[in-house]
Specification:
Layout lengths: L2 H11 L5 H15 L5 H7 L5 H27 L4 H15 L7 H11 L4 H6 L5 H16 L2 H6 L7 H15 L9 H24 L3 H29 L14
Helix pairs in contact: 2-12, 4-5, 4-6, 4-8, 4-12, 8-12, 10-11
Length: 254
Amino acid sequence: MTDAALAENAAGETELLTPEEFESAIRAVGAERYHNKHIFHKMLHGGQMNKGQVQAWALNRYCYQDAVPRKDAALMARTDDRELRREWISRIHDHDGLGQEPGGIERWLILTDGLGLDRALVMSKKAALPATRFAVEAYVRYVTEQPLTVAVASSLTELFAPGIHRERIAGMLENYSFISDDVMAYFKRRLTQAPKDADFALAYIKQHAKTRAEQDACIEAVKFKCNVLWAQLDALHLAYVQGMIPPGAFVPTA
């Protein structure tokens, strides 16, 4: 290849993606990497787990639910953009609640209550897997430390969330006698919350990722977030399917 051709090729590789190409690249990450493809979720939704394994999943996932408003508060603290803060604060309200609205964390605790878990134990997070806690805190740090547009982009796994929520609601209600409709309230609410949040975040990064390097960093952020979710399921599978429960972690009796 001639020097001129090499230069042309290099320039093409750094050309700004169109908004449509940018969104397509982000959605391709979900198609390849979203955690609905993990064997643990396939077993969970397919009725292949016992109550103790479902309890372990819910107890560990609480760590993630509890971290979401912390990472959102960290993102808001970094920006002088009042309109971004006005929009983003609804995410904290969605999880922590506001006024008479109890919020998503409370709805998650209704799920763990319904599974027979001690609420104080769940909220303490002391019985969660070490890998769960490391993965969750890595996400909070990522949002705190990365450029603001990249931090926003890391939330875009919400683009893929409604599908897994619908699958979870249907599969768990069908396959587990110990799961009732009322304890699935968290997932039902996220069917409307997640698309709203994802639409805003997607529009924001399309507007603010102004170079190809920034676009690529946003795509990598979605990959990172998928890895955070996947790593939690790897840990659950190792501990509660393969039986390698680390010291101090939750041990099912159900």
